[in-house]
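Example record

Each entry pairs one chain with its bound ligand, NAP.
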Amino acid sequence: MNIGIVGLGLIGGSLGLDLRKLGFSVLGVSRKEETCKQAVKMGAVDEASLNLSILNQAELIFIATPIAAIAPTLHNLLPYLSPETIVTDVGSVKTEIVTTCAQLWYNFIGSHPMAGKIEQGITAAQNNLFQNTPYVITPTDSTPVDSVSKLAEIVSLLGCRVYYCSPQEHDQAVAWISHLPVMISASLIDACLQEKQPEVLNLAKQLASSGFRDTSRVGGGNVELGVMMAKYNRQQILRSLLEYQNSLTTLTQYLETENWEALTAYLENTQNSRPDFYEG
Ligand code: NAP
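Structure tokens for the complex follow.
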């Protein structure tokens, strides 16, 4: 089976590496010649081109470009699609993409692999990035059921756990566990930088260890991705940020009033609840 990937970066390249290992023939398209060459060299694709026409034999195409380029890419792909071609995207937001893309191509399925890392670009692509990670598929009432099954079958081969929900439910849920953490983590770094005494800030930088590394990781990541999340999932992120501000106000009050009992209960609740989100 021929699989196409447009956008040979971290996600597109990693998909290509695993799909090729599974025996699929992978055709890649990216913006830059050097990216295409690197993707071939790394074994992420069998062939790569700057031209979407290379995908005219692909049965399934993943659009793995930055979010803003997904719908324009699908539009440019249309002349090369046959009626059976399934097109999906890997964008981190779904409602706006699915609404636009399903109007362009009836056989479009929104999807989102919940895997990533701080580095970006083709050189960051790696084997087994998706192993044991959730892969969300967001069909609508008009998405062809057989195409959804086909996509689920293929991404399951990558070792993903497949989940289904509407694009809107996806955007609400990822606002909490993916987009809000980016904003909070960025604001943590920003808050530290507000330290007025240079020697204290310097010392803090030198003393920062695993706790700061964990909590600052996503705030120190891909800027373009963070801005795109905010633009395309603005309402849901705002809703989560406002709730987060309430939570911070509660914490601030506990400290101001030295209410250690309430703080203990708060931290016991978060300690007990964390495994429901993440067992790591
Ligand atoms: P990335 O590493 O920056 O890769 C995107 C690649 O797309 C770039 O390397 C670029 O390649 C190529 N590109 C950009 N515009 C293009 C266009 N118009 N046509 C063709 N190729 C184009 O970013 P990423 O992290 O893989 O993210 C890609 C998508 O995955 C985004 O939609 C994001 O929301 C989603 N996603 C990301 C993560 C994550 O944690 N990073 C997780 C899940 C989903 P050139 O070098 O050729 O310009």
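Residues 167-193 form the longest helix (27 residues).
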